[in-house]
Design a protein that fits this description.
7 strands, single chain, three-stranded antiparallel beta sheet, two-stranded parallel ribbon, 11 helices
């Protein structure tokens, strides 16, 4: 009787068995992207990178006897358990010694699948396709290496992007503070001094430092907060945690400034942004100030109405009595959505 071969099922079995090769390549290579984090967290590297090879030797020695006793399929399931335990343990270890043990367990899984997976594929395959199907295992190993390096690259890219963002934000904040101080001093009649400080994560000592320095310090913050991030399920490192601290007369503006002081500071930032834009592009943007006169004392209102020069400025307000100090410019009255 002529036998038939379910080729789709054969492919399925071979691909599933070849996943062991993927885990082999991924687990062996992904550790290269964690050296700086491990060093920052445990203050040493030790032999955690190469300790997986010890586990691999143990796994290779175990694989033949286990597969003969339990069969290829069960032995591969055992290897999967080693991979799972190793991955979970690596995520939650509290010391370098625990990390080494977790890596050795992963190495045992590597050693087992390196023997059993290609053996299983060769045994379930028919002679006509055996060579091609067994090569799936080596292909999976290569893909595992590629996946690990792409993952490391992406993680590295996140940190680099964050460092670049912090670098340019800090410099923009420095320029913003320079122009905003001048505008705030003029608007307040020289009675108040505006302070602006760019605040980022605690490990970055100077956000104006070179990008390479910021990157190293940001990676150190990520490593030191890894456990807290897992516990809170939040990302605690990066430019999304940054802020700008504003002071007026050396006092925190967010907590202690009046409504008039807050509006003056906001106006100063708006004017500073216009100056930066004009300096970069050599063009003066249209300035729109909506209800900016409310909460300001008469001296500050006079500054807004008469001393903001250069380019077109549109100021809206709801009270006509504030326009008595207007020295130049044109007044438009809006009623019912139309100019009257």
């Amino acid at each position: 009787m002529k036998s038939t071969v379910n080729f789709s099922y054969l492919i399925f079995l071979s691909v599933v068995a070849a996943l062991g090769g993927f885990l082999f390549g991924y687990d062996a290579a992904v550790i290269s992207g964690t050296i700086s984090q491990v060093t920052a967290r445990f203050s040493q590297v030790g032999w955690f990178v190469g300790c997986a090879l010890i586990g691999s030797i143990i796994g290779v020695l175990m694989a033949g006897k286990l597969s003969d006793r339990w069969g290829r399929k069960v032995t591969m399931l055992v290897a999967a358990v080693f991979f799972s335990v190793s991955g979970i343990a690596c995520a939650f270890v509290g010391s370098l010694e625990q990390l080494v043990v977790a890596r050795i367990l992963g190495g045992i899984g590597i050693g087992v699948v390196s023997i059993v997976s290609p053996l299983y594929i060769s045994e379930v395959s028919i002679a006509q396709y055996r060579g091609r199907l067994v090569s799936l295992y080596q292909l999976a190993v290569t893909i595992g290496f590629l996946g690990a390096y792409l993952t490391n690259f992406q993680l590295l890219h996140f940190s680099q992007s964050g460092a670049v963002l912090i670098y340019y934000r800090a410099r923009f904040c420095e320029r913003l503070a320079e122009y905003a101080r001048i505008a705030h001093r003029e608007c307040s009649g020289g009675r108040e001094e505006l302070g602006v400080e760019y605040q980022t994560v605690s490990t970055i000592s100077d956000p104006l430092a070179p990008i390479e320095t910021i990157y190293d310090q940001l990676r150190a913050h990520q490593a030191s907060h890894a456990a807290a991030e897992r516990a809170s399920r939040m990302c605690l490192s990066g430019p999304h945690k940054d802020d700008i601290a504003v002071t007026i007369g050396g006092v925190n503006a967010r907590q202690f400034s009046s409504q008039g002081q807050t509006r003056t500071a906001a106006l100063a930032f708006k004017l500073a942004e216009r100056e930066i834009y004009r300096e970069i592009t050599s063009r003066t943007p249209l300035l729109l100030l909506d209800d900016v006169l409310s909460e300001l004392d008469p001296k500050r209102q006079e500054y807004v109405l008469n001393r903001i020069s250069g380019g077109q400025v549109f100021i809206t307000c709801c009270e006509e009595d504030r326009l008595g100090t207007l020295l130049s410019g044109k007044v438009f009255h809006i009623a019912g959505g139309a100019v009257v």
